[in-house]
Amino acid sequence: MTYSVTRTKNYHYVIGFVCVVMLILLILLPTFLGKASLRLATEMAGYMALAVMWNLLAGYAGVMSIGQQTFVGIGGYALFILAGFSGLPLIPSILSAGIISALFAIPVGFILFRLNGAYFAIGSWVIAEIFLLLTAQSVWLGAGSGMSFPTAVAKSFGNSTERAALFWWIALTIAIVAFTTAYFWLRSSRGLALTAMRDDETAAASLGVDITRNKFAVYLLAAAIAGMVGSVLFLGKLRISPTAAYDINEWTASIIFIVVIGGIGRLEGVIIGVFVFFTLRYYLADFGTYYLMALGAIAILMMIKLPKGIWGIVYEKMEIEIFPLRRNIIQTQKEKPSHH
Amino acid sequence: MLKLQNVSFQYGALTIPDNVSIEVFEGEAVGVIGPNGAGKSTLLDLIMGSKTPQRGKIFFNNREISVFTSQKRCAIGIARAYQIPRPFYGMSVFENVLVGATLGGRFRESIVYEKCFLVLEKTGLIEKAQEQAGSLRLLDRKRLELARALATSPKLLLLDEVAGGLTDIECQDLISTIRRVNELGVTIIWIEHIVHALLAVVDRLCVIDQGQKIADGIAHNVIELPKIKEIYMGTPE
Q1: What is the dihedral of CA A109, A112, A114, A120, to 10 degrees?
Q2: What's the domain range around A206?
Q3: Taking the model in full, what pTM does it have?
Q4: Average pLDDT of chain A?
Q5: Could B148 and A192 be called an inter-chain contact, meaning their C-beta atoms sit closer than 8 Å?
Q6: Residue A260, in any domain of the structure
Q7: Domain for residue A67, yes or no?
C-alpha cells in the first residue's frame, strides 16, 4: 500500500470557478450600484479584511488583541497626512499607511508579547487608549477635533461617484489581499504551526513550533492590513478624529462579533459573519443603543450555544471546506506486475 | 549525551526536583520511577524546556541548554510525549504528525510525507491517518503522542507515563514499539508507574522521591533494593 497527499477535492474546481465569477462581479460592482450602496460595500470589504486578520490573530495564533483599533487609527491619520497634506499620490499613501502601522506594531508588540492571555488583551486596549490620548494632545494632528481631508485633494480623485468607485476597488483589493494572504499562510507549513498553536500551544512548542515568532509575524501582518483599512475607510468619510479613529466598538468589538458568529478558527467563517453583522446592523440601526445591546446579547448567546460559530457547525457536520486547507490522504494499491 | 547537574526547581516552598544530577548516555533506555509528586514530570519539563531550573545546569551533547526554549531543544533533538495526551484536536492524525516532522525536523513539507506515513505505520495509526485527532480514543491518543514525538527525528525521547490506562495487550504493543525505537539508536527516558512495562524496555532505573534521586543503577538491581521496595512499593520487609 502506498499513500499520497492531496489538498483539493473535485468540488474545489467548481468553487474556484464560482470565486472567479464572483470576483468579476465585485470588480464590476460600481456599474450596478449607486454611491450609497457602494460606500456600504466598501465598509464591508474593510470589515472583512479586519475580521480575517483578527481571526488569524485570536482564532489561530492565540493573540487575544482587543487593541487593533490602534492600527486602524494610525493608518487613518497616516493617510490624511501623506495624501492630504504632503502631496503623496493615493496608492503609495495607502501602502505607506500599512507600513507605518506595522512599524508602530514592532515596539507595541515588543511590550505586549511579554504579557499573556487576559493581560495581553487588557494591555492591547490600554495601548490603543494611549494612542487616542496622544493624538488628542497633538495639535499638528488637529488635536481632539481631528482633521478634514482637503477638498482640493479629494476632488483630484474624481467626483463623488468616481471616488466611491475608486475607494471600493481599493477596499476590495485590501480585502482580497488579506484573505488570500491568510489562506496561503494557513496552507503553508507556517499555517500548520499556527493551527497547532490554535489547538495546544505547549505541545506545539515541544514539537518545534516557534510560538513567539509566529505570533509576532501574524501581529505585524494584522497591523499592516488594519492600517490600510483605516486609511481607505477614513478617506471615504473625508474626516478623522481621535475618538473615531481609535474606536474600540467600531474596529474591535464589531470585528470580534463577526468572527465569533462566523466561526473562530475557520477561514470561511468571516464571510458569513460579515453578512450577518451588516444585515443585523441594517435592520437594528433604528433602535439606537438597543442595537448594540442586541448585538452583545446575540454574541453571548452564540458563545454559549454555538461556540464554534456557524461555519464551525457546517464543517463538523459536513466536513466541507470552501477554501481547502486540509491534507487528504489517498491510498493506492501498488500495481501488480503484469505477466505477458 | 544528557547531563543534569545539581538541578533544582522551586514550586513556592517546595523544591522538586532538589539538587538532582543524572547523566544519560547515548543509546540508553532509562526508566524513572517514584511516588506521585516526587518531581518526575517536572524533571521532564526541565529537560524539554517548558520550565527552567532555578539552580543547576543542563547539558545536551556537551552544550549547555538550561535556558533554551522548548522549540530550540526540539530542533537539537529532544522530543517529548506527554502524560495526558495533548493532540491538536482540530487537525487530522496525519497533520498532527506532520507538525513534528516539518517544524521539529525543519524539513519542507513535501519531503516528509513519506516519513510521516512510516511513523504512522510504525505506531499503528496509519488506518486512522485521516481522522480528526480529537475523535481518537485513549490508546490512539497515546500512540499519537509517541508518533508526533518520533516524527521530529529525536535523538532523545522523553516518555511520560505513556502506558497508563492501557490494557495488557495494548501495553505489550506499546512496549514493542518503544523497544524498536530504542534499538534504532534513540535514547529514551521513560517515566512510568507500570513497572513491568518499564522493565521490559529499560536497562537502567532511577528512583526519585520527594525531589531527591535515591537510587540509580541497573534496573533489576535497583528494583530489588529494600529501600526502594519500602518507599516505592510500600512493602516494608
Answers
A1: -140
A2: 39-248
A3: 0.86
A4: 91
A5: no
A6: no
A7: yes
